[in-house]
């Protein structure tokens, strides 16, 4: 017996609902199976990506500036220049993901950036450091947006926030592991006549090369080619994907027209600008946390590295819990707003004239809000883009504009501002507040729009349209009662347009 009955493209229904022919337990077991085969590899990929990108902050404590003769703002330039090429290659990388297949493309870029990250530990000049950072940004650019889109190939909308959440848990673990590894590797200072910062970059870069090779054999390109799935499981997932609104065969193909629509949709721009604000906190805090902690107390370098670990651990645990709640209650915006406020309180404490212990508490609060506020919107936007072309462009655009903050973030934490770093904390607080206001507006506006759709105020806009035509509208059907964009729910009106009919919800 088939586990999933045939559905119309507008049939709706909660994934995992109890309609006839639908085996809920089978689906739960299958999702757990997907998790076992997908989540470990994507977490490792992003962990090493983030580690290789920000470990320059740990290397700074072990003689990088002194050995390379950096002065003035040269360290900040070396940190930020990575994002120049990162931004340039992010959207193009996302658009070629399917063409080169995820397995080959992700494995290749991982292998290459691992080599670059390792060789960075051997540079002897400022110019060579800049060249390595530029190349690292170009190659790493395709990973996070690619993984975000890759997850949509396998998981439903109701499952996406938690799985994207695992990526941000990886970022938190990278921060924690980076501090711990730097603490341990720092004791190698002087081995083979090399300073500790070189060993940090080399030893943390080599595993990435090995992971790139393993990824080629580990990842599956799609549901249809996943060797770990039985034919019955593949058929179930294909049909399950077809149950989501506007998820037609045409919608899953790449169309340039869909890509263009991303840049004419004001909601994509709003999400992108908010991401810029929130990523200012991500890159400022992640790169300069060792520097911040060192400045607020009288600790040795090894102690500083150890003190970063609890902050990142709290951030990871918080995100996992909130991502589960977000998927369970199907709310994105509300949680993003709440945790923006928590990070703002943390920066307020860092700005206050308080003791070292109180300032360290502020670091915990910033970390607690950081990954939730950064991560949930990255599930919110693609959930509202059922057509593949627009989804890949929108995710890439959101991340590109957001990551542009990585160019700015190093220059708000200048050495001259030590030990309080008033400007850095104040700018970060303001940018988080800016992002929170945008998310609050989006939450209010979309909820109000959904209320109009629920009342049937715009039923007349689809008069005379066939179900097939409506299905192909994708998220553009937000002007009709058939696709309601919301921060927490997508409503499908599965009825004849001239009669009242039941509304079903499909989660975002």
**Given the helix and strand composition, which structural class is it?**
mainly alpha
> Cα-atom Rg, whole angstroms?
23 Å
Number of domains: 2
Strand order of the largest sheet: 1-2
**With helices defined by DSSP (H or I, 4 residues minimum), what is the helix count?**
22
Largest sheet: 2 strands, antiparallel
Total beta strand runs: 2
Q: Could you give the distance between the termini?
A: 29 Å
Would you identify the CATH H-level superfamily of the largest domain?
A: MFS general substrate transporter like domains
In which range does the helix fraction lie? 55-70%
Low-confidence stretches: 1-20, 470-475, 477-508
CATH domain class name of the largest domain: Mainly Alpha
CATH topology of the largest domain: Growth Hormone, Chain: A
Mean pLDDT: 80
CATH architecture of the largest domain: Up-down Bundle
Kindly estimate the percentage of residues that lie in beta strands according to DSSP: under 5%
N-to-C order of helices and strands: HHHHHHHHHHHHHHHHHHHHHHEE
3D shape: globular
Give short descriptive properties of this protein.
single chain; 508 residues; mainly alpha; Growth Hormone, Chain: A; 2 domains; two-stranded antiparallel ribbon; 22 helices; disordered C terminus
């Amino acid at each position: 017996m088939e586990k999933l009955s045939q559905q119309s493209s507008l049939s709706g229904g909660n994934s995992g609902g109890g309609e006839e022919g639908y085996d809920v337990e089978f689906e739960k077991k299958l999702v757990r199976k997907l998790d076992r085969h997908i989540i470990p590899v994507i977490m490792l990929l992003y962990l090493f990506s983030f580690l290789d990108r920000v470990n320059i902050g740990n290397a700074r404590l072990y003689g990088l500036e002194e050995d390379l003769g950096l002065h003035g703002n040269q360290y900040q330039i070396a940190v930020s220049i990575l994002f120049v090429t990162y931004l340039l290659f992010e959207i193009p990388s996302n658009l070629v993901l399917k063409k080169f297949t995820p397995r080959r493309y992700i494995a290749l870029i991982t292998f290459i950036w691992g080599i670059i990250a390792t060789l960075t530990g051997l540079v002897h000049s400022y110019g060579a450091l800049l060249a390595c950072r530029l190349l690292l940004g170009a190659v790493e650019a395709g990973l996070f947006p690619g993984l975000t889109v890759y997850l949509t190939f396998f998981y439903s909308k109701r499952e996406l926030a938690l799985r994207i959440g695992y990526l941000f848990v990886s970022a938190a673990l990278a921060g924690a592991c980076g501090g711990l590894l730097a603490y341990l590797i720092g004791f190698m200072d002087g081995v083979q006549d090399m300073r500790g910062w070189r060993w940090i970059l080399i030893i943390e870069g080599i595993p990435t090369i090995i992971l790139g090779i393993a990824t080629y054999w580990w990842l599956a390109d799609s549901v249809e080619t996943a060797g770990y799935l039985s034919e019955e499981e593949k058929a179930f997932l294909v049909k399950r994907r077809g149950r989501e609104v506007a998820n037609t065969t045409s919608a899953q193909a790449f169309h340039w027209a869909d890509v263009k629509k991303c840049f004419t949709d004001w909601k994509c721009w709003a999400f992108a600008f908010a991401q810029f604000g929130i990523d200012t906190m991500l890159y400022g805090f992640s790169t300069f946390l060792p520097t911040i902690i060192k400045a607020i107390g009288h600790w040795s370098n090894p102690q500083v590295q150890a003190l970063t670990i609890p902050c990142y651990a709290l951030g990871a645990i918080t995100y996992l819990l909130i991502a589960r709640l977000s998927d369970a209650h199907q709310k994105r915006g509300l949680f993003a707003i709440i945790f923006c406020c928590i990070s703002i309180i943390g920066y307020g404490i860092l700005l206050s004239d308080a003791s070292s212990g109180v300032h360290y508490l502020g670091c915990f609060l910033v970390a607690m809000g950081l990954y939730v506020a950064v991560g949930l919107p990255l599930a919110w936007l693609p959930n509202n883009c059922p057509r593949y072309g627009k989804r890949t462009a929108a995710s890439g655009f959101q991340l590109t504009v957001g990551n542009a903050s990585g160019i700015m973030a190093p220059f708000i934490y200048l050495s001259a501002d030590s030990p309080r770093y008033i400007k850095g904390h104040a700018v970060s607080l303001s940018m988080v507040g800016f992002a929170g206001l945008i998310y609050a507006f989006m939450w209010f506006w979309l909820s109000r729009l959904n209320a109009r759709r629920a009342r049937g105020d715009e039923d007349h806009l689809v008069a005379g349209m066939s179900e097939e035509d409506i299905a192909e509208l994708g998220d553009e059907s937000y002007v009709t009662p058939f696709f309601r964009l919301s921060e927490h729910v997508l409503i499908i009106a599965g009825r004849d347009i001239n009669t009242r009919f039941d509304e079903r919800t499909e989660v975002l």
